[in-house]
Each structure stands twice: as structure tokens, then as C-alpha cells.
């Protein structure tokens, strides 16, 4: 019993992680225990092979139903096309405690982390300052981003008297968008602040080696994510960026009718790293079965077998062989 008490005392006496000392979230985050990957150097995080990804969608407007999130879907397709295993998508509020917790946890767990939202000029845009707090970093006005902002952005029609050289509430608000979390111990600036296009002043801020902070505006999010691709490809499992291979099958059978066969198929192909999926299509006459993996040659060799097993056929896109008069399929 005394041995157990001593063990518990040693555990409780461990120092808190950095963000718990400096965040209002500290009292709720003391259960976080650093793993060996927490100690991975920033240099290694910048260079290591990207196997996994995580996504944090930040915004009260998404949780409140005012805005529909399309960025996570775009990221999912982006990761699939590159062969990156997107493991988790979370939607959280514009809340400092939640941003600190999610950013710290995902940075520790995944190779490539993307955040969306919360980097605008208003009071509720707190992503930069929250992630800075999570990793004990200062917010610094980035001169390169300021130069680009002055050159590429134009005052809103409602601000005809805006002047870059005259202090004003509007100028102060704009400056918030280029006050970035900066690790001053690192000399390589373009590993922390990335400009993906000559016609954009908005930077991708990279924190702790693997968190990439992007805007929530879908058009910007998509363009900036695509702009990161040349930097990511050399770090992929497949440097040629061929991604994952997917085969779709259309079946007239209900899921319950193919369940037994698909279970056997899943056990058979699992050693090859291939996943079998089954997707009911409510109100349609045909359902969908998928094979997803990297071994294209082996997967192609299974086509005839799967077509027979599900009494269907391979299709290029879901629904291409739907009948006009469909019937609900059971599960």
C-alpha cells in the first residue's frame, strides 16, 4: 500500500506541461501527460515523414449552425489524394481553453495539423494568441506580412479615409491579423511563416513544427492548403504523391445481404493494408461498397471476385447506374 502511495505522490509532483502554467485552462488540463513524442525536436517535426493528420475547425458560427463547414471536407480529400491518413476532425468554439487543449494534444499526436478559422480582426478571433499561449510563444508583428498587406490589400469601401500611417482602431484591428506566434530561438523564418502565393498577403503560420494555422474563409483555406502541397510532397510516405487508391462497387443488395461476405473479405485483405467499406444510400436502388488501400495491382485483381460477391459491378462514381425509380434499402 505504501509503495502505491509513494508512486501516486511522485506522479502528482511531476511538473505541469508548459501551457498549463500560462493558460486559464490550467486547472482543466493537468491530466495531460507528455509522451515521448512530446519531446520530439522542432527540427524533426519539420522534417519527419508525414503519416497522419488532424484538423481543428474553430468557430462559434459553425457550432451554432450559422456557417456550414466545408474546409474539413476539402482537407479530407486533400489528405486522401496525398496518401496522408487524416485521423481526426474536431469542431471547437472560439474559446482559448479549448484551442489550447486541442492544439497541444493534436500537435503531440499527429504529424500534420491544420486549424481553420479565428484569425480575423475582431475580438472573437483568438486563434493566434491561444496557440501562442499553448506553446509559450510571444505574438510578434511580422514585417514581411505587413509589407504584403500594405501592398496587396485595399481598404474597405466603408473606410475611405483609412491611412496605413495614421493610428486608428481600423489599423489596430488589421495589425492583429499579422501578429503571429513566433519562436525566436529558431532562425529559419520560412519554417514558421509561409507565403504560398505571390498574390496573397495572408501567411500560413506554422507553430511547434507541425500546426498550420489557416483562415476559415473557404476560398482562402483551399488556395492556401493547395499552396502547401509542394512543401509536403517530399515528406510523404509516397514522395510521388500518388495517394491512396479507391475502388467503388455498386450493388443492388441491402447491406445486411452482403455483410457476411464483406466481413470475410475484410479479414482477407487486412494484411495488405486494405480497408473494405459499405455505404447504404437511402432512397436509392443501389448501395456502395469500397476498397481503399495502396496496393493497386492487388486491389485490381480483386475486382471480379468482389463484383460476384456483391452481385454488382465496379463504377467510376457513386450513383452512376442509379435507376429512376429507386426503393429504400434496408440496413
TrEMBL record:
**Gene3D superfamilies, per database record:** MoaB/Mog-like domain
Q: Which InterPro entries match?
A: FLAD1_M, MoaB/Mog-like_dom_sf, MoaB/Mog_dom
Source organism superkingdom:
Eukaryota
Q: Which GO terms describe its biological process?
A: flavin-containing compound metabolic process
Q: Which Pfam family name is an example for this entry? A: MoCF_biosynth
Give the Gene Ontology MF terms in alphabetical order. FAD diphosphatase activity
Where the record annotates domain MoaB/Mog, the positions are 54-235
> Which residue stretches belong to region Disordered?
310-331
Protein name per its UniProtKB record: MoaB/Mog domain-containing protein
